[in-house]
Design goal:
alpha+beta; Thiol Ester Dehydrase, Chain A; 6-stranded antiparallel beta sheet; 3-stranded mixed beta sheet; 2 helices; Cytosol_ACT; long-chain fatty acyl-CoA hydrolase activity; Acyl-CoA thioester hydrolase
C-alpha cells in the first residue's frame, strides 16, 4: 500500500518521494560564541548550520545516512547580529542516482519585532550511504502540489543560472 508522498514500483522499491518530506527548518539564537569581534555571525558557524540542516533534509528524503559531497557558491547577503534568531531552511529539489541536491536558505529574525530578512543561500549536494557506507540509490523527487513544483522549479533555475554565472567568471 502506498500513501500520497511515496510511490512504489512492483518490486516495492521507492521511486519517488514528495519534496515536502524533506523540508527541514532549524533555529539558533546567535550568541557570542558564534560571532566575530563586530557582534555578527561567523561565516563558518552559518555554513555549519547550513550543512547540518541540509543533511537532515537529505536523510529525511532518502531514509539513509547522507554525507556532504559539495557546497556551491555561498551568497552572504546580509549579516546576522548577536541576539537575532537564525532560521535555516532546507529541502531536496533534485536527485541523481545516489546524490541529493538541497537548497538551503538562511534568514535572520528580530525576536522582539518579528522582522525578518534573508541572509544566506546556497545549494549543497549529499550522497546517500547504505549500511556498509557505500553510495546507494535514492528516490526521485515528486512534486504533488503546485507549491512544491514551484519550489523545485525555482531551485533548479536558480542553481542553473548561478552555475552559468560562475562559469562565465572563470572561463
Amino acid at each position: 500500500m502506498t500513501d500520497d508522498t511515496h510511490d512504489t514500483d512492483d518490486t516495492g522499491d521507492t521511486e519517488a518521494v514528495a519534496l515536502a518530506e524533506s523540508y527541514t527548518e532549524m533555529t539558533e539564537l546567535l550568541l557570542p560564541n558564534h560571532t566575530n569581534n563586530l557582534g555578527r555571525a561567523l561565516g563558518g558557524a552559518v555554513l555549519n548550520w547550513m550543512d547540518i540542516c541540509g543533511a537532515i533534509a537529505a536523510m529525511r528524503f532518502s531514509s539513509r545516512q547522507c554525507v556532504t559531497a559539495s557546497m556551491d557558491h555561498v551568497d552572504f547577503i546580509s549579516p546576522i547580529d548577536i541576539g537575532e534568531v537564525v532560521v535555516v531552511e532546507a529541502y531536496v529539489f533534485n536527485t541523481g542516482r545516489t546524490s541529493l541536491d538541497v537548497k538551503v536558505d538562511v534568514r535572520a529574525e528580530d525576536p522582539t519585532t518579528g522582522e525578518e530578512r534573508k541572509t544566506t543561500t546556497s545549494f549543497l549536494t549529499f550522497v546517500a550511504l547504505d549500511e556498509s557506507g557505500s553510495p546507494t540509490t535514492v528516490p526521485k523527487v515528486a512534486s504533488p502540489s503546485d507549491d512544491e513544483e514551484h519550489l523545485r522549479e525555482e531551485a533548479v533555475e536558480k542553481r542553473r543560472s548561478q552555475s552559468e554565472a560562475v562559469a562565465e567568471r572563470f572561463c
